[in-house]
């Protein structure tokens, strides 16, 4: 099983490239204190807006230059990866926990519960996720914690619909009927028998949800609704650079590239996993 998954992974270029980017991102986030050459909040007012080392006026002390307060951009990017990792883990965890639970209930029991949840999910999915997140953060108050909670909440309907559809398909299969005849309880049928067979699409969605969470958190921070100064969150770094785009463009380019590559990496890995976990793939390949 593991060897087959590894073989499929290695022959899928999206999974390989995306997984490599995600691995680098996670390693940078985990070992940020050892990789960052300076403190992310340490100011150097004698050297504000210093260019990167390959430009005139650059210094090897600040490889990617400094921001308007003389803080090392490279160190802030490295610590920003740690913040983005926390954002992804917590927000996806919130959405996954609530969405999987409610999706299982709706798909298994159906009836009025399924009808009500279906209406709520349809209404929420008809609205832009970032707009709902802005409304929630405006109610709770601007902060990184509230932004993470808001991102997790607005992603719940996606998992409800996904798990509900999988449960509706799986609960009619023979192995579920056999477990019911053996006396399995409804709780066991939902979460022990049926749910593990629905996890393929959920894993793919969770991987892509990581990318969406990082992007939405950056958007909220850019609007001053997420991470607050002096946090080195990538969206907050972009917010503080607007007035320097013409004179010191590197202060915006590097946080933007960090967001771009990280989000692209998670999306590529999600697309690769979608192909690897597709049960019809073996038939298409004639295996």
Number of strands: 0
Taken as a percent bin, the fraction of beta residues is: under 5%
Question: For the CA atoms, what is the radius of gyration?
Answer: 22 Å
List the total number of helices: 14
Helix and strand sequence: HHHHHHHHHHHHHH
Unreliable stretches, pLDDT < 50, 5 or more residues? 282-287
How far apart are the first and last residues' alpha carbons, in Å?
15 Å
Helix fraction?
55-70%
Mean pLDDT: 89
The assigned structural class equals: mainly alpha
The main sheet comes to: none
What general form does the structure show? elongated
Report on this structure.
The chain contains 14 helices and no strands. It has helices at 2-10, 13-30, 32-35, 73-109, 111-125, 129-140, 144-154, 156-170, 174-181, 186-194, 199-222, 234-239, 250-276, 281-285. Mean pLDDT is 89; it is low at 282-287.
Features of the shown structure:
single chain; 287 residues; mainly alpha; 0% strand; elongated; disordered C terminus
Write the layout of secondary structure elements.
Layout: H1 2-10, H2 13-30, H3 32-35, H4 73-109, H5 111-125, H6 129-140, H7 144-154, H8 156-170, H9 174-181, H10 186-194, H11 199-222, H12 234-239, H13 250-276, H14 281-285
Helix pairs in contact: 2-4, 2-13, 4-5, 4-7, 4-8, 4-11, 5-8, 6-7, 7-11, 8-11, 9-10, 11-13
């Amino acid at each position: 099983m593991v060897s087959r998954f590894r073989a499929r992974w290695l022959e899928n270029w999206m999974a390989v490239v995306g997984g490599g980017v995600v691995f680098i991102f996670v390693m940078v986030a985990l070992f940020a204190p050892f990789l960052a050459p300076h403190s992310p909040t340490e100011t150097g007012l004698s050297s504000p807006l210093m260019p990167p080392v390959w430009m005139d006026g650059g210094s090897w002390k600040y490889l990617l230059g400094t921001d308007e307060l003389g803080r090392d951009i490279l160190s802030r990017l490295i610590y920003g990866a740690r913040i983005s990792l926390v954002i992804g883990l917590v927000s996806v965890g919130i959405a996954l926990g609530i969405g999987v639970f409610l999706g299982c209930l709706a798909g298994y029991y159906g009836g009025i519960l399924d009808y009500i949840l279906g209406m709520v999910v349809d209404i929420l999915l008809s609205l832009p996720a970032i707009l709902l997140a802005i409304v929630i953060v405006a109610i709770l108050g601007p902060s990184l914690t509230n932004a993470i909670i808001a991102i997790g909440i607005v992603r719940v309907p996606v998992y409800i619909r996904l798990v509900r559809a999988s449960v509706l398909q799986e609960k009619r299969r023979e192995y579920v009927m056999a477990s019911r005849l053996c006396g399995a309880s409804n709780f066991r049928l939902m979460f022990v028998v049926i749910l593990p067979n629905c996890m393929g699409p959920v894993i793919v969605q969770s991987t892509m949800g990581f990318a969406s969470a990082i992007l939405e958190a950056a958007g909220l921070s850019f609007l001053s609704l997420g991470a607050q100064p002096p946090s080195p969150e990538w969206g907050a770094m972009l917010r503080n650079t607007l007035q320097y785009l013409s004179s010191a463009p590197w202060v915006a380019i590097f946080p933007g590239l960090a967001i771009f590559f990280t989000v692209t990496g998670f999306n590529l890995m999600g697309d690769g996993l979608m192909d690897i976990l597709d049960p019809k793939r073996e038939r298409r390949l004639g295996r």
